[in-house]
Amino acid sequence: xxxxxxxxxxxxxxxxxxxxxxxxxxxxxxxxxxxxxxxxxxxxxxxxxxxxxxxxxxxxxxxxxxxxxxxxxxxxxxxxxxxxxxxxxxxxxxxxxxxxxxxxxxxxxxxxxxxxxxxxxxxxxxxxxxxxxxxxxxxxxxxxxxxxxxxxxxxxxxxxxxxxxxxxxxxxxxxxxxxxxxxxxxxxxxxxxxxxxxxxxxxxxxxxxxxxxxxxxxxxxxxxxxxxxxxxxxxxxxxxxxxxxxxxxxxxxxxxxxxxxxxxxxxxxxxxxxxxxxxxxxxxxxxxxxxxxxxxxxxxxxxxxxxxxxxxxxxxxxxxxxxxxxxxxxxxxxxxxxxxxxxxxxxxxxxxxxxxxxxxxxxxxxxxxxxxxxxxxxxxxxxxxxxxxxxxxxxxxxxxxxxxxxxxxxxxxxxxxxxxxxxxxxxx
Length: 428
Ligand code: ACO
Prior knowledge:
Elements: E1 5-10, E2 15-20, E3 61-64, E4 69-72, E5 75-76, H1 77-83, H2 86-95, H3 101-112, H4 119-126, H5 134-148, H6 158-184, H7 197-206, H8 216-228, H9 236-245, H10 251-263, H11 270-281, H12 287-295, H13 314-330, H14 334-347, H15 350-354, H16 361-372, H17 379-400
Antiparallel strand pairs: 1-2, 3-4, 4-5
Helix pairs in contact: 1-8, 2-17, 3-6, 5-6, 5-10, 6-7, 6-17, 8-13, 8-16, 8-17, 9-10, 9-17, 10-17, 11-16, 13-16
This protein binds acetyl coenzyme *A.
The site of acetyl coenzyme *A has 18 residues, from helix 16.
């Protein structure tokens, strides 16, 4: 028997099977040979929420959740966050290597050339009420882009995919800023292509009467936050992009599926939920009672816990450093003081220690965004801008992966057996 196999004995039949092991993994399809009768469907694996199922092979992001390691294309997140720009990281995720100067210049210029959006998109945006949730607006407007670029449907052409990637990277910050201005009833600020990616976005958000005094510390802090969010392998929103993209739909539609997934409070919506939670707590003396209610099963400590990280989220460590720089500029606030105390109490509480619940990336990001002047319900939009390169890189990898087909999980049917249709007059 080869060493790299798994022997399985089916005690229903007494038969044994040797299943190949590659990368510490067996292929679920190899289990289909395990049957009681020849005409059985064969054995499946049952894995709700994909707790232990690899759905792809990927060379983009490496995570070791137990040791708190995150690497993009092999580079530790700590080194990348310290020195790179967001566009450099996006290039790295797409192309697999860090760009040289000429490559980065071309990439940056290609994006710069596409920052404007069709004015009809603004009419579309204005159909939303001023108080519509920013993520709902973002979701709608990004999927709307697919109707403006019908050429995006040709996903078989790599050059065409590059064009759509550039369009999305260039236009997402413009749309994100425009929907903020729409909520405020402020005039739209056109993209300024003499500014870099982050500076242009911040200018479109906050410029009043054509004037905005940039704060380099806050802009670099935002850039680091975008970098920290750029990819996180097969998380919920990326899996959504891959699953929807696997049907062959255009990238605008596939990315909007990612935005929809990110919107949820268990995923990208958590940074917003953290601020809501801190508001509910209200003051430091109420923290112990709040922690007790979480432990009793009434709600969760938002910004704590992670499906993959069972030690401190490495991004949360970096974010804490960023927070120090930002708050040195903007000053401490009451919410931050509650957050610091909440973290201290939770990290020393047996309930959280036993379950390996540590702060995740969202625990501090919302506080930083708030200090920078972004409204609470807008935080997840910033996450989406950061995550876009990851979604697109994973989408591209999926398209080039010959093993991938349309995503189509199996189920264990638990409903009725066949029964006769009941006419209306005979129903109870
Ligand atoms: N507060 C209190 N208890 C928690 C928390 C929390 N934040 N997270 C998990 N637990 C407890 C659960 O109640 C459960 O306890 P039990 O074993 O006594 O039943 C145990 O820890 C395991 O929890 P699961 O739900 O099985 O963990 P899972 O890996 O499925 O969940 C998740 C991960 C969704 C992130 C969860 O920790 C959570 O809801 N956190 C709060 C929301 C949040 O911050 N989300 C952001 C995630 S990071 C991101 O998307 C960028």
